[in-house]
Amino acid sequence: MCAAVERATIDERLLLIRAHPELAGRAAIRGELTPESTREQQGAGLAACTPEEFARLQRLNTAYTQKFGFPFVIAVKGLNRLAVITALEHRLENALEHERAVALREIGRIAGFRLADLVDEPPGSRIMAMAEHLARFSDRPDGLSCAYLTPAHRATAALIRDWMLGAGLDVEIDAVGNVIGRWHGAAGNAATLLTGSHYDTVVDAGKFDGRLGILVPISVVARLSRAGAQLPYTLAIVAFAEEEGVRFKSTFLGSRALAGRFDSAMLDSVDADGLTMREAMVAAGLDPGAIPAAALDPRTLLGFVEVHIEQGPVLLNASAPLGVATSIAGSVRCLAAVTGLAGHAGTVPMPVRRDAAAAAAELVLAVEKRCSGTPGLVGTVGLLQVPGGAMNVIPGRCELSVDIRADNDAARDAALADLLAESERIASRRTVEIQWRRVLDVRCVPCAPRMQQRWAESIRRVTGVIEPPRLPSGAGHDAMVMAQITEMGMLFVRCGNGGISHHPSETISAADADLAARAFEDFLLNFPVSP
Ligand code: GLV
Ligand code: MN
Ligand code: MN
Description:
Layout: H1 2-7, H2 10-18, H3 26-30, H4 35-43, H5 51-68, H6 81-91, H7 96-118, H8 123-134, H9 151-166, E1 170-173, E2 179-183, E3 192-198, H10 212-226, E4 234-240, H11 253-258, H12 277-283, E5 301-309, H13 314-317, E6 322-328, E7 330-339, E8 343-344, H14 356-371, E9 377-380, E10 384-385, E11 393-394, E12 397-406, H15 409-430, E13 433-442, E14 445-446, H16 449-463, E15 470-473, H17 478-482, E16 488-493, H18 510-526
Parallel strand pairs: 3-4, 3-5, 5-16, 6-15
Antiparallel strand pairs: 1-2, 2-4, 6-14, 6-16, 7-12, 7-13, 8-11, 9-12, 10-12
Helix pairs in contact: 2-7, 5-6, 7-9, 8-10, 8-18, 10-18, 14-15, 16-18
Bound molecules: glyoxylic acid and manganese (II) ion (2 copies).
């Protein structure tokens, strides 16, 4: 349908817009709307306007039709009456061409909602299609990059919100940009099981890291609610706004806000263009002052579970589609800045140079050497740059990141202490200064044994495998932050292509996505309200 609209002439597009009834207008009063429109307009409270509101709507509707020559169209699903009226007021100020595009976009959203109600394809292929769809929003034209609060990131959030609404969830976008969809349990039970993962990505990312843990729950809830099922507890699906730390070098912004662990000093961190996080939030329509209020009350929580791709080869090599995470490795991340002395590449003799990049190179090798040979310990320098460098200038400054992880905190802390000592030796030998700034420090987190057991049982019921693989996670996850306020567990899904992740070749199969959805559904249906 979208392709047909794109090919259509302006007059044909206008015919499509004009085929829509006036919102809360005479057709609604005469009962001429489709049952779907009636339901949605009632849901937004448009059938219960006060006489003053009705008069205001009529006035605005008339002004709108006179200005543009077509009726006001908006996908009202998930909006309340006030939001609809306010949108009408704002859109009256648009220029004609812009407003025509907005109306067509809204028609596209309405069509999406209607289709979601009709289609009952297997969850696996639907999840794959949704992941492809989200991957179209990218900060760069080549590949997928979706950093916190960029236009691509906001478009991703808007589409996730639409899908959640289409699945029958109540949706809010909180102060840091988390998209939270709630499926209220029977008997208005406030006890909430949380699930979800992140929708931001690394640069040149795969399509499943984080997003799988949002799409699996949405597709399962859509299926269950279409089938008329109800859970005895509230399920909240959280699409976390930020986990990767790409733009501001601070990670887990989404889960930290929900766990009440958001450090407001992070609001002053700056991106590569010198924009503060606070400024980026305000520009995106978010309210940084409301972040403390976004924290969840742990007393209302039944737990947090995350579905995630394994991001490694263990399940692939074991020919197992699904596995249970046992723990999440602790990690420490630092930014190191080496300051030497810039100079002419042709004139300064080698023995008297204070080359910052050469010192950084020693540090890179020290990280590799110190973190090799200890099982469970890994170290990576992922960022390395000479700011403002030139081919004929000795580097005066070099910046690098150091990421150290281990499945036990003592091993990780010992490695960092040794590297800091080595950094001092390198600095004094080369007469440079090396400053370290710690930007992340999370302890190794065990997954709750009860959660592990429940995931193992769900995998067994769905796949028939009696003892599904249990494996530690070397990657960090929102689950490790949420574990600070509630019981946590994770389901891992097999990766293809040798298990590669944080790379465009990252992949899973539709069949495995289907199994993940079935295991997740089984987990929900068997999850006890009381421990
Ligand atoms: C998150 O993707 C991480 O770096 O582990
Ligand atoms: Mn990642
Ligand atoms: Mn991830």
